[in-house]
Amino acid sequence: MPAFPLAAFLASLPWAALALALLLAVTFAVAVRQSRHSVIDTVWGLGFVVAAGVSWLLSAGHGDAGRRLLLLALVAVWGVRLAVHIGVRARGGHEDPRYVDMLSSAPGSRNTYALRRVYLPQGLVMFFVSLTLQVGMFSTGPLGWLALLGVLLWIVGFVFETVGDWQLAQFKADPARRGTVLDTGLWRYTRHPNYFGDAAVWAGLFLVAADSWPGVLTVLSPALMIWTLAGKTGKPLTEKAMSARPGYREYVESTSGFLPWPPRRRAGR
User: Fold this and answer.
1) N or C: which end of the chain has fewer CB within 10 A?
2) Nearest by Cα to 199 from 167, 161, 169
3) Do 269 and 197 lie in a common domain?
4) Half-sphere exposure (Cβ direction) of 237: Cα atoms closer than 13 Å
5) Boundary of a domain, candidates 142, 162, 188
6) Residues spanned by the domain of 267
7) Do 133 and 75 meet the contact criterion of CB atoms below 8 Å apart?
8) What is the spatial distance between Cα 225 and Cα 125, in angstroms, rounded to a whole number?
9) Which residue blocks in 35-144 are alpha helix, DSSP H?
10) What is the pLDDT of residue 137?
11) How far is residue 142's CA from residue 144's CA, in Å, rounded to a whole number?
């Protein structure tokens, strides 16, 4: 097996960073024009597709062709689907309450504050998490059983995320259910099937990259994504916003917080 092309990989990193910077610059310009910085949520998944695409182009002739194509396809399907879902959901809407709260107390220019507190951190996270993809693109070993396991885990995650989002959209579309709690379908087994699915997708991508040295060294990249989803901005902020909704406390007591698990029997049932 050829050695990892370290020089070519290092030379590719600035180009991936530049591509992400350009994507976020365009996003920032659109957000300022629309007075709605939540548009960055639509670009979140696309950022990883951009980073993977640049690495795919620059790793030609260096990394294993099968792994390069597999990583690009998996992240493209995930990222484009997520972007379309969030874009359709937010179409014609107002600023997300999370950004309203964050920017309402901005010292000085609201846009400058958003650039520093939203765009820069998200760009850095995109680049760091995408290192799993970037290293994987340049890895020279052939696909093996660990990569197959990663694909299977990716499929599980993609199904959970896609079906969970669809079930939630159907639930919200019914005016009679406004103010109630979704506790059926995948939401019966985890309070966050979409976040769990996202975490499983990135764990799967990591396994595809870790199948060949030095992909395993990028373990902190998916770990950061999973920590963000489960412990930082995903699950905690969603549950904070839902906490006052009637029936939500009972839902929390009976339903797994993240990993899918059969629901516990509720009191009085």
Assistant:
1) C
2) 161
3) yes
4) 12
5) 142
6) 144-269
7) yes
8) 8
9) 40-58, 65-90, 97-104, 110-114, 120-129, 131-138
10) 98
11) 6
pLDDT tens digits along 56-115 = 999 999 999 999 999 999 999 999 999 999 999 887 677 777 787 778 877 878 899 999
Shared domain for 79 and 127, answered yes or no, is yes
Number of compact structural domains in the chain: 2
Rg of the Cα trace of the chain? 20
Q: Which amino acid, one-letter code, is at 110?
A: R
Structure tokens that stand for 126 in this block:
């995109």
For residues 134 and 150, state if they share a domain: no
Residue type, 126: M
Among 27, 225, 234, which Cα is nearest to 120's? 27
Same domain, 174 and 212: yes
Residues 67 and 153 in one domain: no
Q: Are residues 104 and 173 in the same domain?
A: no
In the chain, the amino acid numbered 148 is: L
Same domain, 20 and 127: yes
Copy the structure tokens of residue 47: 């950022």
